[in-house]
Amino acid sequence: MDTTNSTHSANAADDANAADEQRIRELVARSQKAQIDPDVLPALHTADMVIVNLAGRRLFGRDAFASAMAEALSSPLKDIRTSLKIDDIRFTTPDVAIVSLTKTVHDERPEAEDSSGLPSVGAMTYVLTRQGDDWLIALAQTTPVQ
């Protein structure tokens, strides 16, 4: 029995997953870097995306997200930054990935002494979809970690 084709196929699949994982890691890095750029960050999401933030606010669609982001950046919330650490990447299909992250909030507002009442760490989940050769964020949900 000839197994060279199945071995080649498995290696090709592993290579494709490694390339996709690298693209996903780059997307997460771009999303973190663009967190104060209302032109770039929404473009990293699908048009029909959903976000649930650390406070439980839910936004539907890229336009609603862009509007909320612009509003936040014109308020004291502009001084809040987050950092993301990838904990796990799983492919549910070749075109859908679930990324588990730890989100850490860095509140740099002068009056930040626990003024928000929200924890500084959250368990974040991205659901990503492949669009051509790119990956975009279809869902971003953050659960506060006490």
In words, what does this structure look like?
Residues 33-137 form the DUF4440 domain. InterPro entries: DUF4440, NTF2-like_dom_sf, Steroid_delta5-4_isomerase. This is SgcJ/EcaC family oxidoreductase. The protein is of the alpha+beta class. 29% of the residues lie in helices and 40% in strands. The chain contains two helices and six strands; from the N terminus they run αββαββββ. The chain has helices spanning 4-33, 62-73, and strands spanning 45-52, 58-60, 80-93, 96-107, 121-131, 134-144. It has a six-stranded mixed beta sheet with strand order 2-1-6-5-4-3.
**Lateral strand order in the biggest sheet:** 2-1-6-5-4-3
Order of helices and strands: HEEHEEEE
Radius of gyration: 18 Å
CA(first)-CA(last) distance:
56 Å
Q: What is the number of helices?
A: 2
Protein name: SgcJ/EcaC family oxidoreductase
Domain DUF4440: 33-137
InterPro entries: DUF4440, NTF2-like_dom_sf, Steroid_delta5-4_isomerase
Organism: Streptomyces longisporoflavus
